[in-house]
Amino acid sequence: MLTSKQRAYLRGRANDYDTIFQVGKGGINENMLDQIDSALEARELIKLRTLENSDFFAREAADTIAEELGADVVSVVGSRFILYRESEKNKKFDLERLCEITEEKKPVKKQVKPGYKARAKAKAQGEKPKTFGFKKKK
Description:
alpha+beta; four-stranded mixed β-sheet; 4 helices; 33% helix; 19% strand; elongated
């Protein structure tokens, strides 16, 4: 069961997702459930929609699919709905921390342009001050 903060976070993340499944006049069958199950395992968060010629409304389809696959309904708006199920192998979201899981990267050392005092100190010691940027052509 998702909390309202988790649901809001997932709804925001799925905002720019494309719909990958459509529930049409064929309804919800075993083949479709198998495909949605594998998509949930791979992505954790998917967006679906119901077509006008479907026998289901979006809320009914979302509840039926979520119940069959053990997923959570994140939101239902119009004919579109979003499902979430935590993946066992491909975790993408950490809902306790409300963030995406990314591989740890080494921090990049940022070159800092020396300030006015550092340049003045270098000139006073007779050294050439460090400068960054474009060199003037002679």
